[in-house]
Design brief:
Blueprint: E1 7-8, E2 15-16, E3 23-25, E4 30-32, E5 44-45, E6 47-48, E7 64-65, H1 78-98, H2 103-109, H3 114-136, E8 142-148, E9 155-162, E10 165-173, E11 179-184, E12 192-197, E13 200-201, H4 203-220, E14 226-233, E15 244-246, E16 249-252, H5 254-261, H6 271-281
Parallel strand pairs: 10-14, 14-16
Antiparallel strand pairs: 1-2, 3-4, 3-5, 6-7, 8-9, 9-10, 11-12, 12-13, 15-16
Helix pairs in contact: 1-2, 1-3
C-alpha cells in the first residue's frame, strides 16, 4: 500500500518515505519494504497503485490486489512482536499514570527492562530468518511461521517442509555469544550433553525443540523424517567448524541451514500435502 506517513521497515530498518509503496502486515500492524516482502499469506496483502477497493470491478482496472493462497503461512515473529509491544505499552501506561507530569521525560530517559527487550530481540531474529526462508521457498520447499501449539502458550518459530523431511526450526538471537557442546561423564558416569551459549547452560532450548519435534511427528504420522534445528542468528561462530548435533537436534547458523533445506530427497511428492496438513493442525499464533 502507499504509506500515508513515513515509516521504517521492521526487518531491514530502511527508512520509508510517505507515499512509498510497501507491505502492511495486519497481524503486527507494521510495514515492510517490498524488498523484504515474503510470499503473500492470509495476513499480508500487497497493493500497487493506491488503496484497494472492497471488490475490484475487473482485472487490470488500475488497482492490482495480490490474493492470498489457501494456506496461511503466517508472519514470522508475529506473536513475539505483539508481546513486546504489549509489555512496552503496559510499562508506558503505568509510568504515565504514576507520574502524570514527568511520565514522558521518564520514558525518554529510561530503557525498557531486559524482560521486555528480550521479546524484541527474539522477534527480530525470527523475522530475519523468516524473510530468508520465504525467499528460498519453492513448490518443494514450503514454510510456515509462528505456529501456535494447541493447548499450550508455546509456539513453533518455523516449519520447513522439504523433499528430505520436515524441519522444526527454533530461531535464537544471541548476539556475539558462541554456542558450544559440553560433554560430561562417559566411561564411569552416564554421558550428559549440555548446550552452552557463552558461559550459560541453555540445554533447555534443546528440550523445547525435542517437544516440538514429537508434536509434529504425531501430526504427520508417516514415514517422513522430522528434524529439529536450533538456528542461532548473529552469534559468534568460529571460522572453521562450529555446527554440531546434540540429542538429535542440529545446532547451526542460517547459512549452514539453507543448503540442507534446498537438498533433493525422496519426499518431494508429499511436500504440498504435508504443508497443508501442518497448516491446519498448528494455526498461526
Amino acid at each position: 500500500m502507499r504509506l500515508r506517513y513515513a515509516g521504517t521497515c521492521r526487518v531491514c530498518n530502511a527508512a520509508l518515505d510517505a507515499r512509498t509503496e510497501a507491505v502492511y502486515e495486519r497481524a503486527t500492524k507494521t510495514v515492510r519494504c517490498l524488498s523484504c516482502s515474503p510470499p503473500v499469506s492470509a495476513d499480508v496483502a500487497v497493493v500497487i497503485g493506491g488503496e484497494p477497493p472492497a471488490a475490484p470491478e475487473a482485472p487490470g482496472a488500475g488497482v492490482a490486489v495480490v490474493e492470498a493462497g489457501p494456506v496461511d503461512a503466517g508472519v514470522a515473529g508475529a506473536s513475539a512482536r505483539r508481546e513486546y509491544e504489549r509489555r512496552q505499552a503496559k510499562r508506558e501506561e503505568r509510568i504515565r499514570a504514576k507520574h502524570p507530569k514527568l511520565g514522558g521525560l521518564i520514558l525518554a530517559l529510561s530503557d525498557d527492562p531486559q524482560s521486555t527487550t528480550a521479546w524484541d530481540a527474539g522477534a527480530l531474529g525470527e523475522e530475519r530468518l523468516g524473510t530468508r526462508l520465504d525467499e528460498l521457498a519453492t513448490d518443494t520447499l514450503r514454510v510456515l511461521h509462528d505456529r501456535r501449539i494447541p493447548g499450550t502458550r508455546a509456539n513453533i518459530d518455523h516449519l520447513a517442509v522439504t523433499p528430505t523431511g520436515i524441519y522444526v526450526i527454533d530461531a535464537k538471537r544471541y548476539v556475539g555469544k558462541r554456542p558450544s557442546l559440553r560433554v560430561e561423564g562417559g566411561v564411569l558416569r552416564p554421558r550428559v550433553e549440555k548446550l552452552m551459549v557463552g558461559t550459560r547452560d541453555q540445554t533447555k532450548l534443546v528440550d523445547g525443540v525435542l517437544k516440538q519435534v514429537e508434536l509434529v511427528r504425531l501430526i504427520v504420522d508417516e514415514d517422513v523424517p522430522v528434524l529439529g534445528v536450533l538456528c542461532f542468528i548473529e552469534s559468534d561462530w568460529p571460522l572453521i567448524g562450529g555446527a554440531f548435533t546434540t540429542r538429535g537436534v542440529d545446532v547451526l547458523w542460517p547459512k549452514k541451514l539453507y543448503p540442507r533445506l534446498a537438498s533433493d530427497g525422496p519426499h518431494a511428492a508429499q511436500v504440498a500435502d504435508l504443508h497443508a496438513r501442518l497448516a491446519r493442525a498448528v494455526p498461526p499464533a
